[in-house]
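User: Reviewer 2 asked us to show a designed sequence for the structure in our supplementary figure. I'm pasting the structure tokens here. Could you produce the per-position amino acids so we can include them in the response letter?
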């Protein structure tokens, strides 16, 4: 006698595919802004590029990258991050 299709199995498959489709969609939608930010600290300059869902997120991420490259230790990094960037440029995709 042939087996009956299990409806619970199909519900789980459709649910799993839907979950991954939504996850991919939200991941792709999140990165919308890309900026290059230059920071000057203690006579040195570094420029980094970062992406984020908003301008502020992208700029802050790039600032953190720059300050990690320019500063020695956590205290100097905090001082560096308190300074305004020397340059901000939006990267067009």
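Assistant: Here is a per-position design you can include in the supplement:
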């Amino acid at each position: 006698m042939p087996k009956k299709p299990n409806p619970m199995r199909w519900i789980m498959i459709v649910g799993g595919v839907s979950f991954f489709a939504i996850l991919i969609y939200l991941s792709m939608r999140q990165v919308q802004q890309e900026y290059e930010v230059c920071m000057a600290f203690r006579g040195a300059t570094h420029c980094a590029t970062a992406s984020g869902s908003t301008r502020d997120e992208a700029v802050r991420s790039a600032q953190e990258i720059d300050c990690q490259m320019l500063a020695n230790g956590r205290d100097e990094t905090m001082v560096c991050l308190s300074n305004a960037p020397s340059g901000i440029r939006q990267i067009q995709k």
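For the response letter, you might also mention the following. The first strand starts at residue 33 and ends at 41. The CA atoms of residues 34 and 93 lie 8 Å apart.
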